[in-house]
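Hello forum,

I keep getting stuck at the same step: I have a sequence, I want structure tokens, and every attempt I make locally crashes halfway through. Rather than fight my setup again tonight, could one of you with a working pipeline run this one for me? It's a single chain of 298 residues.
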Amino acid sequence: MENITDKTASKYLGKKVDGSEKYDPSLLVRVPRFENRKQYNIQNENLPFQGCDVWHAYEFSCMTENGLPVTRLLKLKYNCNNKFLVESKSLKLYLNSYNMSRFGANINDCLTICKQQIEKDLSKILETEVYANFVNNNSNKISIFENYKNIIEFVNEKNLKIEKFKEAPEVLQIEETHETKEYFLSFDSLRSNCRVTHQPDFGDAFIYYKSKKHIQEESLVKYLSSFRSEYHFHEECCEMIFKRLMDLLDNEDELCISILYTRRGGIDICPSRWNKHCTSDTLKLLDIGTFARNGVKQ
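Reply #2:
Ran it on my machine without issues. Output:
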């Protein structure tokens, strides 16, 4: 593989790219995580959270040695404590390079070879262990977020007035309740924009926290809505939300943020961040053998 250190996130974005008709790992591009973290005083050496980035590639396709097409849902996962994330268009081009490539004498051999090669290539470029698996997207679904309630149910829409559409942590309001409670909240209208192409990205945000403090739901709606004119990668938005909310809570409180972005170009990104105290069932999202989007927009 060629040296990728000097590549930028914009290597392919906004440009006509033909891709490759044969397997080509040199298409992969990595992006340093510190580019956004430094703005929020998030230090790679002392992260305030744990977490993973989960990707679903819905139309991964390749061929056996005798030319039989094989198409599967590919699930990828890697930890957020490494220095890099993979740029989405480069991942798309890389996975598409498998389309006309031949592997293995039969379907099982083909998928085994591809799985091992994908894990090897991504682990090398991201300098961390990457897990891959092929999942049947019509089965193995689990309802992770069934206990979460739409945050709009707790808000009086008539009195709600949202005026800030650049990330506005100052709108967040918190109150002491003196009683530890669990909160399971969802927001189905998160919108941000790619910081390179400026194209809009939509996602469902799921927020779990356990605390004596209560983040007022109306203020949380205002804050999440303020991302509509922000320009960040999906993983960055998840970390920004986590950092702002954790700054309001106590260190011993539990907090978990998961964002399931809708797919674009056949791939979605589902980042999750949580602190060391968190035991939320949301972490089931990270099961590499499960298609964990049941009941959520695709």
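The radius of gyration is 20 Å. If your local run keeps crashing, start a new thread with the error log.
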